[in-house]
Write a structure and sequence with these properties.
Keywords: Membrane, Transmembrane, Transmembrane helix
Subcellular location: Membrane
Helix content: over 70%
InterPro entries: MFS_Na/Anion_cotransporter (IPR050382), MFS_trans_sf (IPR036259)
Radius of gyration: 19 Å
Number of helices: 4
Order of helices and strands: HHHH
Largest sheet: none
Membrane topology: Multi-pass membrane protein
GO cellular component, one term: membrane
Strand content: under 5%
Number of strands: 0
Number of domains: 1
């Protein structure tokens, strides 16, 4: 039999809410760049639509490349027992947060 899920403890935990706020802000920023990027580059910088389309697609490209590279690294670390699953997840989170911060 499974232990009951402590929903009240989860929903009142500040670390859960800070994680939610951080993720929401990250996704908000990404989608703002994706939807308003072409307009910004066209009207503020005066670039043509081909250049703006390429630049607006860069966040998608980097997210895809990051997911591929880190999934390969994570599989290696797990498969060789160099890190636990929990530590691989922590490493991915820390690396991603450092990457988007800089």
């Amino acid at each position: 039999m499974h232990a009951p899920i402590p929903w009240s403890g989860i929903l009142t935990d500040t670390t859960v809410w800070m994680n939610f706020v951080g993720h929401f802000g990250s996704v908000w920023g990404l989608f703002t760049l994706m939807t308003h990027g072409p307009t910004y580059f066209k009207f503020i910088h005066g670039w043509n639509i081909r250049a703006t389309g390429f630049l607006s697609g860069m966040p998608h490209l980097f997210r895809m490349l990051w997911a591929y590279v880190f999934s390969q690294l994570g599989d290696y670390l797990l498969g060789s027992n160099k890190m636990s699953r929990s530590n691989v997840r922590k490493l991915a989170t820390m690396t991603w947060l450092h990457t988007i911060k800089t």
